[in-house]
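Researcher: Good morning. I'm working through a list of sequences from a screen, and I'd like to move beyond sequence-only analysis. For each chain I'm collecting a predicted structure so we can compare shapes side by side. This is the next one on the list. No need for commentary yet; just the structure.
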Amino acid sequence: MTERRIARRYELSLPVVVRSPIERQVEAHNGQTRDISTRGVYFLIEEDLAPGTELDFTLTLPAEITRGTEVFIRAHGRVVRVERKAEDGTDKLGIAAVIEKYDIIRAEPVPS
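Model: Good morning. Structure tokens for this chain:
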């Protein structure tokens, strides 16, 4: 099978907060990334999402990764694939989403 990805993928386990803007959800759903690239993300979440669903999500890059302050990535994308998973005794879904746009927000440094 030939690799079709254009962007390099990074295996990172990061917290992700997901909302569906089309449904005007006030409630956010927490998940965990498995990998991420500049064009897509794969994360595990308990919320049932369908392919084609639009998403707003926020990832937090900790200071250990950025070698400075925390960095927040706010993104908008669309679900392209859903996989049923059973991990840690819970029913989680593996969600592959394409990133259509994103903003990087650096946290303010904390004075020493």
